[in-house]
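Hey everyone, long-time lurker, first post.

I ran two proteins through the pipeline my lab uses and got sequence/structure pairs for each. Pasting them in order. The first:
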Amino acid sequence: MLPIYLQALSFHDIYGNGDDCIHAAADMAAELGIAGLDIEDRLLENYEPEYLQELAHSVGSRGVQFGYAGVIVPFNEPVSSIPGEIERAKALIDAVPHLGISSIRIPGNGVVNGQTLEFTFEKVREKFQTVCDYAADAGVTVFLHNHNHGSTPSTGAQVLKMLDEVDSPALAHVVDTGQFQGSPGSSGDGAPAKVAEEQLYESIEMCAPRASLARTKFYFADSGDEQWLDYPRIVRILKNAKFDSPLSIVYEPRGDVLSKDALPKAVKYLTELFENS
């Protein structure tokens, strides 16, 4: 079975946006016997080495480990927010070694305020080039994250174009199963019906061979297994692409199932699919 990590931000429904989410994710990862947890920059109290090292010790003492650390991006703001994002990414790159983390995750930006897709895409490309240049010197991997919410890159074709145009050994790709265009869980050009459109699966199939990590999104809007996304199909796509990298489970509730109940259910469901399909 592939290594499984829990996205700590998934616990924000119970603990808000703070490091209590990190401790909860570490506890659950240890209880479930999985690899560990992924975090977001917004969950960290500060970047002081002593605080980060104590947090790393607390997580490690449970027998689990950190995966990646993500950078928040304001999708509804114009690309004028990018210089600030770059500075925050650089600060996170400097901080993550104290946590034993060697990779960060960054999405693109929203196509807003009358900007064209082409203009925004170019600014996002420049953002990734700048961050990757800095990360390469630090020995940190930068995961390009496909993310809709009206942003780019949010299709398979856009992701592949970005991967091809950013020239850096630090660049990698995290394929998010619930954030391509066509996903009912994303905004922007996401599907209005609560069933994923074909273009979502086409994008996953295009990008899976280039991915070094998969963010497996769960919504659990209704009782039973995940219904908005066809995970038997997604798992087949990943297997056909010979995907052999970690899985990061991300829970974005669309119903009344709490994270403490949803995440163990998602781990069990995903594990069974990979073992039996």
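...and the second, right after it:
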Amino acid sequence: MSESITLIKEEVLTLGRLVETTVYEVTRLLKGDKRADLSLVERQEAEINDLCLEIEEKCVDLLVERDTANGAREIRALVSIPLIAAKLERLADHANRVARFANWAIEDQIEIPEELPRMAASVYHMVQELLLCFLTDSPSKAKEILASDSNVDYLHDLLSKRLLSDLGEQDSAGAQMKAQFLFCGRFLERMGDACTSIAKRVYFLSTGERIGKGGH
């Protein structure tokens, strides 16, 4: 059983690296980097979805054989790993939406608010730390990730206040553009939330204890 779980965890890391690449390309797109590859993001979407389902099915199969489980930690792993994979898949879905908008903004030479690439860079760092956290089963690293989400929340609040301050004074086209920026900010904020959810699940997997967003 332990060997089977180790192999599944390796597949989760593969899934996580695909998501990491997706978020990296999103960050490049939001920075206006014309070398960023939207087609890579789109190609990886199906691969991420398929791998997420495959991981879930393998965990279910092992749970059906639960009489061979060796302890509570293995049961926690089999319950937690599909949830972690699903959160990674959802994070990638949000990233795809932001990537398409960013690519459109580049093509139309629209200036992207500076908060958006900064948010994406913060989420990218969180994903990197998540993969390390998952690989090492580190409760302390999970707490660090929870704390780092405050920067994403701060930038989201900053962006929202700035864009909403004069929204009513904009013409129709300008108001619609600001609304698109707000949607992107919301998706990036949800990506940060997905990272914290995964960190809390890794903490539970490792310790058997629950942890709040603030690390308590």
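Reply from user beta_strand_b:
Welcome! Quick read of the second one: The first helix runs from residue 2 to 30. The domain at 2-207 is CATH 1.20.58.220 (Methane Monooxygenase Hydroxylase; Chain G, domain 1).
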